[in-house]
Amino acid sequence: MSEEIENNEVYLSYRKKEFSRMNNINKQSLLTLAENKKVNLLLDSNITSITLKENKPVANFSEELGSMEFDYIVYALGGSTPENFLKTIGIEFIGPEPFLKEGYETNVSGLFLIEWKTSSSSSTVFPFNALSLSGRFTVTIAV
Fold first, then answer.
1. DSSP state letter for 43
2. Does the model's pTM come out above 0.90?
3. Residues 118, 56: contact at Cβ < 8 Å?
4. Are 61 and 68 in contact (CB under 8 A)?
5. What angle do CA 122, 91, 103 make, to 5 degrees?
6. 3-142: which CATH number, 1.10.8.60, 3.50.50.60, 1.10.260.40, 3.40.50.920?
7. DSSP one-letter code for 102
């Protein structure tokens, strides 16, 4: 692994107190990464808005976390696209789909959007390679 990737500071925001819909292998892998300080878990956290500060995205939380500045923010969404939530945090839409630039970046600089497909949904799959990024970023899981 390159030094640039090794030095990334990664946060994972999850709105529940514990991971409830993750298979055991992935859950154990993530918890091990957290124990080894490779991922910072922000459990029971809710992002209320995304703002920009000097062209960097800032996640504003409803909890005592307050606001945190990042180089990148990635939203990983389950099931269906929560259009109202995404519009609330400033993401523009073209019809029913969020506006995405090349590389799945939204109109909010540094804010990326991922959606995955499950066997019971018709969601679009947006591939995303976080290893191509370097810096401080958060992955927000909203399911």
1. E
2. no
3. no
4. yes
5. 70
6. 3.50.50.60
7. T
In this structure, the strands spanning 40-43 and 9-14 are: parallel
Domain boundaries in the chain? 3-142
Q: Which helix (H) or strand (E) holds 41?
A: strand 40-43
Strand-pair category, 56-61 with 97-98:
unpaired
Contact 44, 63 (CB under 8 A): yes
User: Which among 99, 108, 107 has a CA at the least distance from the CA of 126?
Assistant: 99
pLDDT tens, residue order, the chain (143 aa): 555 556 788 888 888 898 887 778 888 988 999 999 988 999 998 888 888 899 888 889 987 889 999 888 887 766 566 778 788 888 898 888 888 888 778 888 878 776 544 444 444 434 343 434 445 555 554 43
Cα(134)–Cα(88) distance, rounded to whole angstroms? Answer: 27
The alpha-carbon radius of gyration of the chain (Å, integer) is: 15
